[in-house]
Automatic annotation (TrEMBL):
Pfam families: HAD (PF12710). Keywords: Hydrolase, Magnesium, Membrane, Metal-binding, Transmembrane, Transmembrane helix. CDD domains: HAD_PGPPase. PANTHER family: PHOSPHATASE RV3661-RELATED, PHOSPHOSERINE PHOSPHATASE. One of its GO terms (molecular function) is metal ion binding. InterPro entries: HAD-like_SerB, HAD-like_sf, HAD_hydro_SerB1, HAD_sf. The chain crosses the membrane at residues 234-252. Signal peptide: none annotated. This is HAD-IB family hydrolase.
Length: 262
């Protein structure tokens, strides 16, 4: 059995998933405006200049510290409820074409992303991929993030996860494909017989040209709903529930203010 492995950020979707969720996270009170701006600036630097292991490790530790104390279930629900708003408009049409091609060829589709599992899992479900690899944060006994990570799906970590998956499923890696935009994913690309650089950063483009790897440029993000049907019933229900809850909270706050005044 062969597989096609896809990085997520700037390979399947046009932006970094965490940065894409930034404004929605801010509106929900998870992040402050300066945090969102720092995330956007970091993604800009990463896009144009790449990032070494030390830089990525610092970014990971910062994100984990910010998430410490958040409830995992709340963030998982948040990511799913905002999928249509945040991710749906920025999926590359070319990536969806490749999904269809590899599926028709009988290959397993696998998302491999350094983004947290809470973001990757619902997108993998809606894209209809067979497997996914994602960063797994550590959770305490009360279901809250500790600020540490159980598994980090980045660089060599992605390659290790792919090797485990290949062993479990009996995958033929020499006949498999891998797609990514970043030189940090060289260990993943080196595992397969068909490595492909997509919208590559400077270092990956140089390496792909030197090794004679295929280079693709994706530039057509489309609404996911135009290509993959999305069940909008739970989106509407979630929005209605959120509106009721927020309305109730606002009402309670108004009553408390009136009580204090009297």
């Amino acid at each position: 059995v062969e597989a096609a492995f896809f990085d997520l950020d700037k390979t399947v979707i046009a932006r970094a998933s965490m940065a894409a969720y930034g404004p929605a996270l801010r509106r929900a009170g998870y992040l402050s405006a300066p945090m969102v701006l720092r995330a956007a600036w970091g993604q800009l630097l990463f896009r144009f200049f790449g990032a070494d292991e030390a830089t990525m490790d610092r970014a990971r530790r910062t994100a984990l510290r910010l998430a410490a104390g958040w409830e995992q279930e709340g963030l998982r629900r948040f990511a799913r409820d905002h999928l249509a708003e945040v991710i749906e408009p920025i999926v590359y049409d070319e990536a969806l074409d490749l999904f269809a091609h590899h599926r028709a060829e009988g290959r397993l589709l696998v998302l491999v992303s350094a983004s947290p599992v809470e973001i990757v899992a619902p997108l993998a479900d809606h894209l209809g991929v067979d497997e996914y690899v994602a960063t797994t944060p550590m959770i305490d006994a009360e279901g809250r993030y500790t600020g540490e990570v159980e598994f980090y799906a980045h660089g060599p970590g992605k390659a290790e996860a792919i090797l485990r998956l290949a062993h479990e499923l009996g995958l033929d890696l020499t006949g498999s494909w891998a797609y990514t935009d970043s030189a940090t994913d060289l260990p993943m690309l080196e595992l397969v017989g068909h490595p492909v650089a997509v919208n590559p950063d400077r270092d990956l483009r140089r390496e792909a040209e030197k090794r004679g790897w295929l280079i693709l440029e994706f530039d057509n993000p489309v609404p996911l709903g135009d290509r993959v049907p999305i069940d909008r019933n739970w989106i509407a229900a979630s929005a209605l529930t959120a509106g009721i809850v927020l309305g109730a909270v606002a009402g309670i706050r108004r009553l408390r203010r009136r009580a204090r005044r009297s």
